[in-house]
């Protein structure tokens, strides 16, 4: 098998994502599981085959909750192609594409016009319900990394939760800036940002009002129930696809390096 994958991958084809994930699972000794099937589209999870060993940290990675963010999906596939080192150290749960229909259509929402990343408090969306059940089965986690893209971004930025003892956002962005610049805007998505970092106090009344109005994102649900170290990574979707994917890989690797050296 060519572990480097295709030079020009058909990244908007969910079947390619599924088959590439299956190949990598076989090559890397991961468990390949279809956790929800919708017509001809599969929601796939790759994870360590056994429970975490005593002292082994658990990580969660997801991509493609918005179908018009293909760089996140390709970034996670590319990370998997280079992940052998980390798989020896960490117990992993990986969801390469949370919205395969949207990926095929190159659209943000799913086939019923749901923005899945605003729907994690809902019980009437099968994929969200199944995802929450999967998280309950696989968690809790020591680190969660959610890969996204932003049409309006002028560089890479991220969200971090501020109730950590040490914050890694700056380090993650510096690592990724080797291929994609950091978004330097002081206001990103109507939120104050500093050198590409948007800090969130998820217990603040401002954020509570936002969640009540717009819906609960995957990151917040995971933070509340399964992991207190959550980063949402955003690459600029107007940049070169392969550079965006590479930026995600670099940021993920830096986060794992930090986790490896943390108590």
Task: Please tag this protein with its features.
alpha/beta; 9 helices; Aminopeptidase; globular; 263 residues; disordered N terminus
Helix/strand layout:
Blueprint lengths: L13 H15 L2 E8 L2 E7 L10 E6 L6 H12 L2 H6 L1 E5 L4 H6 L20 H13 L4 E8 L6 E5 L7 H8 L10 E2 L2 E2 L4 E4 L4 H10 L3 H8 L4 E7 L4 H20 L3
Parallel strand pairs: 3-4, 3-5, 5-10, 6-9
Antiparallel strand pairs: 1-2, 2-4, 6-10, 7-8
Helix pairs in contact: 1-2, 2-9, 6-9
Describe the structure.
It is a single chain. It contains 9 helices and 10 strands. The protein is α/β, with parallel strands linked by helices and 263 residues long. The protein has one domain: Aminopeptidase (3-Layer(aba) Sandwich), CATH 3.40.630. The strands form 2 sheets. Strands 1-2-4-3-5-10-6-9 form an 8-stranded mixed sheet, with helices on both faces. It has a two-stranded antiparallel ribbon with strand order 7-8. Strand 1 and strand 2 form a beta hairpin. The chain is globular and about 45 Å long. The N terminus is likely disordered.
């Amino acid at each position: 098998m060519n572990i480097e994958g295709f030079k020009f991958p058909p990244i908007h084809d969910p079947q390619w994502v599924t088959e590439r994930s299956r190949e990598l699972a076989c090559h890397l000794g991961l468990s390949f599981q279809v956790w929800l099937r919708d017509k001809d589209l599969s929601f796939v999870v790759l994870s360590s085959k056994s429970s975490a060993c005593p002292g082994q940290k658990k990580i969660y990675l997801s991509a493609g909750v918005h179908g018009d963010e293909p760089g996140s999906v390709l970034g996670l596939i590319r990370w998997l192609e280079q992940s052998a080192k980390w798989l020896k150290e960490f117990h992993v749960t990986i969801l390469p594409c949370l919205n395969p229909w949207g990926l095929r259509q190159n659209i943000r929402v799913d086939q019923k016009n749901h923005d899945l990343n605003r729907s994690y408090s809902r019980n009437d969306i099968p994929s969200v319900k199944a995802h929450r059940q999967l998280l309950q089965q696989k968690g809790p986690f020591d680190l969660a990394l959610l890969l996204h893209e932003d049409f309006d971004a002028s560089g890479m930025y991220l969200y971090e939760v501020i109730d950590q003892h040490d914050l890694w956002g700056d380090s993650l962005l510096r690592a990724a800036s080797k291929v994609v610049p950091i978004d330097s805007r002081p206001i990103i998505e109507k939120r104050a940002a500093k050198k590409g970092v948007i800090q969130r106090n998820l217990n603040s009344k401002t954020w509570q009002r936002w969640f009540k109005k717009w819906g609960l994102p995957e990151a917040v649900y995971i933070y509340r129930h399964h992991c207190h170290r959550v980063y949402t990574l955003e690459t600029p979707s107007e940049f070169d696809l392969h550079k965006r994917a590479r930026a995600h890989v670099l940021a993920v690797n830096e986060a794992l390096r930090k986790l490896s050296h943390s108590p």
